[in-house]
What we know:
This protein is α/β, with parallel strands linked by helices. The protein is built from 12 helices and 7 strands. It has a single domain, classed as Rossmann fold (3-Layer(aba) Sandwich). α1 (26-33) crosses α2 (41-53). β4 (158-160), α8 and β5 form a beta-alpha-beta unit.
Amino acid sequence: MTQPDFINAxxxxxxxxxxxxxxxxxxxxxxxxxxxxxNFEVDRQAAQEMLKRLPSLxxxxxxxxxxIQEAAQLLRxxxxxxFLDLASGMPSDDHLHTIVAGSRIVYSDINPVAVSYGRSxxxxxxxxxxxxxxxxxxxxxxxxxxxxxxxxxxEPVAIGLNGLQLFIAPExxxxxxxxxxxxxxxxxxLFLVFQTHGEMKNPDGYYDxxxxxxxxxxxxxxxxxxxxxxxxxxxxxxxxxxxxQFLGLPADFITDSDxxxxxxxxxAAFLLKQ
Length: 274
């Protein structure tokens, strides 16, 4: 199968990376899918090709963004004032810096386009930074100068993992979870959406979509809910529930038609370092 053009992604960022429209970019594609404006026609065309394979993709992506918004507000009410977000993607207007304005925030991603855009957006914001970081090498993130400057280890930190669990192997997630646990102050929390196997038989379009994602350097890995929680030990789950329940949406918000292209179930999750 021919590799799609938008599969190029993670060299070092530079100041012009965001403006390079010679190819679509995964970060800008997903920005378009969540309703952002940091994308170009080449990205929108690529997104439409993905939607042909999985028409419900936009709904799933926006559910995850809605979780981030609601989770951030909940964490702020609990007293969290510093956030470390891994695999952040494009920092659109409805991301953490808007939802918990005034908090200390470090975004990170390996995608040079997302990093380029984020750095330019926050270049004059003393309480926000966007760094290049690989979730498979968490110490390079945790000891980055921006993290050392903004994240205080004498108070709990909220750590977002929403863009990682779907794309890395369980043993890699276990290493990441342990590294974060060893680093984070007591009382810190992970917040993320578990994107798991649904209860249906995998539909025909499921494997086509997985192949498309694999070619886009996004090798989706779906696991059971139990395995997903297990991979984050020793973090202790304090809340794990269907995302529609967490967001106060009707149980039938996700329809059989939405599930027809991919066998997936979303769960909102918070895990605590005790």
